[in-house]
Design a protein that fits this description.
The N and C termini lie far apart (about 85 Å). By secondary structure, the chain is mostly helical. It contains 15 helices and no strands.
């Protein structure tokens, strides 16, 4: 009997070696935490009363949807992840989880997160969550990332949608305020990820991913980082300039923007390899702090507004 025949008759399929930690890794917990936080801000900004149980359900569904996107992304990019030092230890390249297992896991989570949000909260939010998952998995992962250097720019829309989904969960609509949050994350994404791409360009080249530094070159990428940072500063100040938030937020956004701009200029000017690596790493690290502090300030202002009448009445 040939090996092929023997395998065809094998009634004992391989038992998965995956542990709970491997499935948690599929969810991209670091990305998920950022999604939860930005969604929380979008939810807190939304007008009207929202029952705490529904609020928790909505955030849980958004988080699970984000994790499902991460699992499907890893299932579709197992070949890429195996070639990159940054991702080689993920569960699929290590052989802990197979692609079909990851696909089944991600599809199941996607279905239940969308259906639960739609049935228990509202279908506008459910539809937006479904679109977010679809955009990240199909438009970004399957198409943009492998075919165009603008993958991060267009694909950034997926990561910018959670505050919009959260707002819709509360109100059943979409308004200007969540779209401003969307714009902030959308314009933050290119300088954040292109900084990573600059000091990981060898990784992306080895995997055959057309990231901007490998297609247009490091100098063009540095210029794009600087230009997007300038736009980001203006967009981040918009909630204050348009009167949605007070001067405290405006000042914080400008201070943080100044920090981003200084680091972006430093990235643009530092062309020698060792100096460039240090500059891009600093910008990448600061960009994470930038978004967290900016959204934390928004959340703090919302909480202060909610508590102010109580304190005044006391």
């Amino acid at each position: 009997m040939s090996v092929l025949d023997h395998n065809a008759l094998d009634i004992n399929p391989r038992i998965s070696e995956a542990e709970v930690g491997d499935y948690i890794a599929l969810l991209k917990p670091r990305v998920m935490s950022l999604v939860i936080f930005t969604a929380l801000v979008g939810m807190a900004m939304a007008p009207g009363h929202f029952h705490p149980v529904l609020a928790f359900t909505s955030l849980l569904c958004i988080a699970v949807g984000a994790g499902a996107s991460g699992a499907l992304n890893m299932a579709l990019e197992g070949d890429i992840d195996a070639k990159m030092s940054r991702t080689a230890n993920r569960p699929i390249p290590r052989g802990r989880i197979t692609r079909p297992e990851a696909m089944a896991f991600g599809m199941t989570l996607s279905f239940f997160s969308v259906m639960t949000l739609g049935i228990l909260v509202n279908w506008i939010a459910g539809a937006l969550l479904a679109f977010t998952i679809f955009f990240y998995v199909v438009i970004y992962t399957m198409w943009l990332k492998r075919w165009t250097a603008q993958n991060i720019v267009i694909g950034g829309a997926a990561g910018a949608l959670p505050p919009v989904v959260a707002w819709a969960a509360v109100t059943g609509t979409v308004d200007v305020e969540p779209l401003l949050l969307f714009a902030i994350i959308f314009f933050w994404t290119p300088p954040h990820f292109w900084a990573l791409a600059l000091f990981r360009s060898d990784d992306y080249a080895r995997a055959g991913i057309p990231m901007l530094p490998n297609v247009a070159g490091p100098d063009a990428t540095r210029l794009q980082i600087l230009l997007y940072t300038i736009v980001l500063i203006a967009v981040a100040a918009a909630p204050w300039a348009l009167g949605y938030f007070d001067a405290v937020y405006g000042i914080v956004s400008l201070i943080l923007g100044a920090g981003m701009l200084v680091l972006a200029i430093n990235v643009y000017l530092r062309r020698e390899r060792s100096q460039s690596l240090r500059a891009t790493r600093k910008l990448f690290a600061f960009s994470i702090l930038y978004l967290f502090v900016l959204f934390a300030t928004l959340l703090a202002e919302v909480v202060f507004r909610a508590l102010a009448p109580m304190v005044g009445g006391a």
